[in-house]
Each structure stands twice: as structure tokens, then as C-alpha cells.
């Protein structure tokens, strides 16, 4: 009699099995377990757990919005070693600072596409008065009152506070009064001081970044949060970063979405470092979803990981693909080869082909519509 070959599914290691049991029961992982998750390279096991959480929170829904990017200036006196976007001073090749009139004209060009959000982040320009940003916000809001302005990272707010002699709270209140609706998560990078000293030593540190978001949440301003991965950080430092975000969310409840941001090396001082692989990208999504049990949305920014990987990420914890993203420059200047925009039809196709249901949202996750 011919023997039959029995194929058995490999069992997870004991530590991961214990973590899986807690995830299935909806029990929070402690700090040591969070570190274990970020050390693990068991992509399929972690992916299954992340997908379990994703479907527990959102079912088969994947969110997107209609948005575009406007960078008022890329002139920046910071020296972040991973950045290909910034220019140290006016007049340098590719340096650009919009006049308020140019910003308004750019916004008007986008309105026929029906956007609900403009994403507005900028360099740390040493020569602009604070009133320039207020005037730009008021002008954009007057041009398109229905447009939600998400802009001005914690790094920018920290810079304005120091440069113009204001508190963080005063900066945020003045920006909101001029038209700001919410704050993006950029500038977090990795919180570990060792890493920040190597890649972004001359801008807001972790404590300052967290404090600005704490104040914004207290003022009723929703924000996002990010993590830049793939430079010189360790798995333990990634875990520490996510745990600090989790702790602030426990305190304030003001974070809407977490966006892992993959390092792109082209045209940056760190161009000799290899970029994260597709395996790494999916792993970080899954790890983050498992540990961040209190931030509702996990976003795959398709501009930097590519449309196809973002699509696959919907099975590794991701429930948001960002939006149409017209005129993105920060990752494009770092070598991203993704399109300049995706149409709503393109986004819905990516979502449906992954077995999910596309849902159009606004910036604060109100449902705008369910495409046919």
C-alpha cells in the first residue's frame, strides 16, 4: 500500500502562540509582547492576526478619500538625512515657495475633481512671517469653504512656536482660526533619541512631537500619527515608537489613523541604505495593527509602497488606502515611481479586487458614499 504524505501547517513558536491567543481574545499585549511582535519575522502568522483585528474593527470596508497635496514651500533649514524634498534656501534648484495668489490658483485647478481634503505640509522656511501661513489658510478656505485643510505637522508647529515666540497652544489656535481642520502625523520619524540623532537631529524631538499632539487633542483637533521605518532603527525601537503612540492614545483618544512610512533612499543623504522590501512593508503593517489596539485606522500610503502592495496590505491589517493624492512631491523627489494620482475608479478597483468594499470618507472618517 502506498503511503500518503501528510502536510502539516507549521505551528507558531510558543511566544507567538501566546500572543495569538491574546489577540483572539481581544486582550491587550504588554510591552514585552509588543517587542516580541516587532522582532518576529513570521509574516503569515502575524498577517492572519492583523487581518483578524482589521475585520473585527472594520469588516470588509476599506476607506479612501478625494484629496490633493499643496506644499506652500519646500525651503527648509532642517537637515533631515532621509529627506529629498527640502531645499536649504530660496534660489536653489527645485526650491519653491508659493505666493498666496499662486496657492489659490493651484487650489482652483483641483476643484473640478471634487476633492474633500487638501493636505498641506511645508518646509521650515526661515524667511516667512507667521502671518503668511494664516493668510494662505484664509485664502484657501475662502476659495473652497467645503474643503477640509489637513496640514502643518507637529514639527512645523514646534518651529513656529520657537521662531515667532508663541506657545504650542497659541500656534494651533491661530492656525485653526485661519481655517486649519486637522493635523497630519508627519515628523514623528522614530522616537528613539539614538535614531533621531543620526537622521533628524535639528527638529522637534519625541517629547515635543507628542506634546503638540496632546495639546491638539485637548483642543478638539483630530490628528494622525506616523512612523518612518527602514533607516537605522531596530525592531525594539519600532516597538517603543508604537507603544508611545498607544500610550498617548490611551490618554487623549485623538489619533484617527496610523500610517507607517517606508524610507525611500533616492536623492537623500542616506541613499546608500537599502530601502525596505515588500516583505518588510507588509510585516510592519501587520505588527502595527496587532500592537496598536486603540487607534482605529491603519493606512497604507500607496504613493510610497506602490498600488499593488497597498492592495495586498488590505489582508495584513490595513483598512485605508489614503486617497487620490494629486500632486504629491515629498516621495516623488525621493524616487517614488508611483503615478501622480489615482482616480476613484482606480482606487475602487484595487479595493474590490482584494475582496473588500470601497467606502469614500472625509478627513475625519465620516462616510461620504459607497461607490456602486
TrEMBL record:
Recorded catalytic reaction(s): these are:
3-[(1-carboxyvinyl)-oxy]benzoate + S-adenosyl-L-methionine + H2O = 6-amino-6-deoxyfutalosine + hydrogencarbonate + L-methionine + H(+)
Q: Which Pfam families match?
A: CofH_C, Radical_SAM
Broadest EC class? transferase
Q: Supply the alphabetized keyword list.
A: 4Fe-4S, Iron, Iron-sulfur, Menaquinone biosynthesis, Metal-binding, S-adenosyl-L-methionine, Transferase
What cofactor does its activity depend on? [4Fe-4S] cluster
The answer, when asked if Metal-binding is one of the entry's keywords, is: yes
Q: What does this protein do?
A: Radical SAM enzyme that catalyzes the addition of the adenosyl radical to the double bond of 3-[(1-carboxyvinyl)oxy]benzoate, leading to aminodeoxyfutalosine (AFL), a key intermediate in the formation of menaquinone (MK, vitamin K2) from chorismate.
The pathway this protein participates in, as annotated, is: Quinol/quinone metabolism; menaquinone biosynthesis
**Matching PROSITE patterns:** RADICAL_SAM
Positions that bind S-adenosyl-L-methionine: 82, 189
Q: Which family does it belong to?
A: Belongs to the radical SAM superfamily. MqnE family.
Name of the protein described by the UniProt record: Aminodeoxyfutalosine synthase
The Radical SAM core domain, residue ranges = 62-293
User: Which HAMAP family does the record match to this protein?
Assistant: MqnE
Which EC numbers characterise this protein's activity in its record?
2.5.1.120
Task: Tell me which NCBIfam families the record gives.
Answer: CofH family radical SAM protein (TIGR00423), mena_SCO4494 (TIGR03700)
Which top-rank group of organisms is this from?
A: Bacteria
GO biological process, any: menaquinone biosynthetic process
Amino acid at each position: 500500500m502506498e503511503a500518503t504524505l501528510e502536510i502539516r501547517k507549521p505551528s507558531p513558536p510558543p511566544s507567538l502562540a501566546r500572543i495569538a491567543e491574546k489577540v483572539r481574545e481581544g486582550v491587550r499585549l504588554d510591552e514585552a509582547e509588543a517587542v516580541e511582535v516587532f522582532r518576529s519575522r513570521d509574516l503569515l502568522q502575524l498577517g492572519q492576526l492583523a487581518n483578524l483585528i482589521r475585520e473585527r474593527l472594520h469588516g470588509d470596508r476599506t476607506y479612501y478619500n478625494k484629496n490633493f497635496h499643496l506644499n506652500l514651500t519646500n525651503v527648509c533649514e532642517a537637515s533631515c538625512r532621509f529627506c529629498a524634498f527640502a531645499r536649504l534656501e530660496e534660489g536653489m534648484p527645485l526650491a519653491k515657495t508659493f505666493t498666496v495668489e499662486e496657492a489659490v490658483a493651484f487650489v482652483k485647478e483641483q476643484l473640478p475633481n471634487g476633492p474633500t481634503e487638501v493636505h498641506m505640509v511645508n518646509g521650515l522656511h526661515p524667511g516667512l512671517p507667521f502671518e503668511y501661513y494664516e493668510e494662505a489658510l484664509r485664502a484657501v478656505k475662502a476659495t473652497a469653504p467645503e474643503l477640509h485643510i489637513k496640514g502643518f505637522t507637529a514639527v512645523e508647529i514646534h518651529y513656529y512656536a520657537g521662531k515667532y515666540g508663541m506657545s504650542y497652544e497659541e500656534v494651533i489656535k491661530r492656525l485653526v482660526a485661519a481655517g486649519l481642520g486637522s493635523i497630519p502625523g508627519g515628523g514623528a520619524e522614530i522616537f528613539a533619541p539614538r535614531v533621531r540623532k543620526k537622521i533628524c537631529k535639528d527638529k522637534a524631538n519625541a517629547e515635543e512631537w507628542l506634546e503638540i499632539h496632546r495639546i491638539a487633542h485637548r483642543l478638539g483637533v483630530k490628528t494622525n500619527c506616523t512612523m518612518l521605518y527602514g533607516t537605522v532603527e531596530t525592531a525594539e525601537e519600532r516597538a517603543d515608537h508604537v507603544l508611545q503612540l498607544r500610550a498617548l492614545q490611551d490618554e487623549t483618544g485623538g489619533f484617527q489613523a496610523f500610517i507607517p512610512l517606508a524610507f525611500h533612499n533616492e536623492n537623500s543623504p542616506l541613499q546608500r541604505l537599502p530601502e525596505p522590501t515588500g516583505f518588510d512593508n507588509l510585516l510592519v503593517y501587520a505588527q502595527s495593527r496587532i500592537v496598536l489596539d486603540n487607534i482605529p485606522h491603519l493606512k497604507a500610503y500607496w504613493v510610497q509602497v506602490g498600488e499593488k502592495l497597498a492592495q495586498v496590505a488590505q489582508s495584513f491589517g490595513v483598512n485605508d488606502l489614503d486617497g487620490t493624492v494629486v500632486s504629491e512631491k515629498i516621495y516623488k523627489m525621493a524616487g517614488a515611481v508611483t503615478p501622480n494620482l489615482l482616480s476613484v475608479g482606480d482606487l475602487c478597483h484595487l479595493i474590490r479586487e482584494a475582496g473588500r468594499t470601497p467606502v469614500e470618507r472625509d478627513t475625519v472618517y465620516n462616510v461620504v458614499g459607497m461607490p456602486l
